[in-house]
Design a protein that fits this description.
single chain, 578 residues, alpha/beta, four-stranded antiparallel beta sheet, 18 helices, 62% helix
Length: 578
């Protein structure tokens, strides 16, 4: 695990080394202070040597000042190293997630990924910050204090033979029990974040169905579960603290009792006893600090496993067989006996034996009932998913021959769930082409019939879009997304039911404009209305993951009963509305 995480300390290793050296120096100086104090008692005070007392006192002051300076430097360096490590790790995880295919992302919930990028990384960087100091300071003080205490009185040091094993047993029990508790606590955090994410994302749905009280109850249940889990793990640790404190102070009392008799019998000096008590306090506190950092380490290990799980997730779609120089020449598409399932272990196929050919520049319509795999079909073209069996060709080459950047750059897809980002209208449009001029933005919006409402906005193209496009209507959002895709000037344009929120007249205008503005672009239109695809060069009728029929509007009317039933039902609807 350390080997996998160590590379993310790059750039901050000098600070780690500085923190270690300063912590070690601070510990040594603090351990020398009791020796100097012992000499003041046994030599200076006992001999009445005021000069020696002043000199030794000044020496202690200088040592304390240097120790303080080293402590400040160690804390600052450890903080830099911890924060830098956290930033590097967080960036690496985020960049790795960006390479995931949809199927990879589905292995983790969005809430879980957010928790891993925030809480889990924060716990690890906090442990590194504390560990750089305590893991150096505590062992050094422990070992050095043991040696110095044994030097003062070997007989009195035998008390450690009882105390240290007792503390070690207590620490081992805590570590064994608390690790799984921290893992459960992080999973409970995932569950809580999931509720928050869903509620805030779908706040309009929650309010429209008057479900605030139910959502609050759901949040309270998850929050209570997290609280109880945290109380159980933290309470288990805290419950052992009184026991550890009893052991520590019992040891100090025993040393004072036994050591007092040694002083009374002349076997030990008063200053030596004071120093010995100081050292035993340092030893026992060091053991407690080590125990506490080991508990923090238990949580960090649980967090590290979750992060490494993400980092070890192998992206399903890679550029391993791609030619970096190969560009998509045109918008021709060919499916050759394609099969697909979302989960390899699933028995049922989502797509079965799909084969068709589209020449560049054609307009293709796709119709089918809910769950007929229309979106699944078009998602395979830009390799958002990988075909399980069969082959897909774009521009005359298998899609695996292109890098994902070149392939997806040649495809523009307007999804059912239209997404806009916080920023201005122009900022959102330039997702299609970051270098687009104002004139190109306006042309694209005219093609998508978006100019008519943009010109009515207070600041036009500089109007700020709220998060998720909350301040514009569904139809306006769809038209902006279509305009964004047009700016891409793609070889293939996929519209996945992306005009469902606009009226039939606007839908017809958009389709007519697309034919004129993008004559060489292959246009794939998924729609529920026959009127949206009836003028297409080829219409695919999907039914339960297979192509039930394909042809032009007239051909399908005469040969496909599914298409004819849909057409006639919609025509009846038009008649009734009229």
């Amino acid at each position: 695990m350390i080997q996998k995480l160590y590379p993310y300390t790059k750039g901050y290793r000098p600070y780690m080394l500085l923190a270690i050296l300063c912590s070690a120096g601070e510990a040594v100086l603090e351990l020398l202070l009791p020796l100097t104090m012992s000499n003041i008692v046994d030599i200076g005070i006992a001999g009445g040597d005021r000069s020696y007392i002043l000199t030794a006192g000044l020496k202690m002051a200088v040592m304390a000042a240097v120790a303080m300076l080293l402590g400040i430097t160690a804390a600052s360096a450890a903080a830099r190293a911890g924060m830098g490590f956290g930033a590097n790790l967080r960036l690496a995880v985020y960049e790795h997630v960006q390479n995931f295919s949809f199927s990879n992302i589905e292995h983790f919930s969005t809430a879980s990924l957010i928790t891993r990028l925030t809480n889990d990384v924060a716990a690890m960087q906090q442990t590194l910050m504390m560990g750089l100091r305590i893991f150096v300071r505590a062992p050094m003080m422990l070992l050095t204090a043991l040696v110095l205490a044994a030097t003062i009185s070997l007989n009195l040091s035998r008390v450690f033979l009882v105390v240290i094993p007792l503390l070690a047993v207590v620490a081992a029990v805590i570590l064994r029990k608390v690790g799984p508790m921290f893992t459960t606590m992080q999973q409970a955090t995932d569950d809580l974040n999931l509720v928050v994410q869903e509620n805030l994302t779908a706040i309009r749905v929650v309010k429209s169905f008057v479900r605030e009280s139910e959502e609050c109850a759901k949040f309270e249940n998850r929050s209570t579960h997290l609280r109880k889990t945290a109380e159980r793990s933290s309470g288990f640790v805290v419950s052992f603290m009184p026991l550890m404190i009893i052991i520590v102070y019992s040891t100090i009392i025993a040393v004072m009792w036994i050591g007092g008799h040694y002083v009374y019998d002349g076997m030990m000096g008063s200053g030596d006893l004071i120093s010995f008590i100081t050292y035993i306090t340092e030893i026992l506190m060091s053991l407690m600090m080590v125990s506490m950092i080991l508990m923090m380490l238990s949580r960090s290990i649980a967090c590290a496993r979750r992060i490494i799980e993400v980092m070890e997730e192998v992206p399903e779609i890679t550029n391993a067989t791609a030619d970096p120089a190969l560009q998509v020449a045109d918008g021709s598409i060919r499916f050759d006996h394609v099969f697909f399932k979302y989960h390899k272990g699933a028995e049922a196929w989502n797509l079965r034996d799909v084969s068709f050919h589209v020449t560049s520049g054609m307009t293709v319509g796709i119709l089918g009932g809910t769950g007929s795999a229309k979106t699944t079909l078009v998602s395979l073209i830009p390799r958002l998913y990988e075909a399980t069996e069969g082959q897909i060709f774009v521009g005359g080459h298998p899609v695996q021959d292109y890098t994902t950047e070149h392939l997806r750059d040649a495809c523009a897809m307007v999804l059912q769930q239209n997404t806009l980002f916080s920023g201005t209208v122009a900022d959102n449009l330039r997702w299609g082409n970051r270098n687009a001029s104002d004139e190109e933005l306006q042309d694209a919006c005219r093609t998508a019939c978006a100019d008519e409402f943009i010109t009515r906005m207070p600041q036009g193209y500089d109007t700020v879009i709220d998060q998720g496009g909350a301040n514009i209507s569904g139809g306006q959002k769809q038209r902006l997304c279509i305009a964004r895709a047009i700016l891409r000037k793609p070889k293939i344009l996929i519209l996945d039911d992306s005009t469902s929120a606009v009226d039939t007249s606007t839908d017809a205008k958009i389709r007519q404009s697309l034919r004129q503005v993008l004559p060489g672009t292959t246009k794939i239109i998924i729609a529920q209305r026959v009127a949206s695809v009836m003028d297409a060069d080829l219409i695919l009728v999907m039914d339960d993951g297979v192509i039930a029929a394909m042809g032009t509007h007239d051909q399908l009317l005469s040969s496909c009963h599914i298409y004819r039933e849909v057409y006639e039902s919609q025509q009846e609807g038009v008649t009734i509305d009229a």
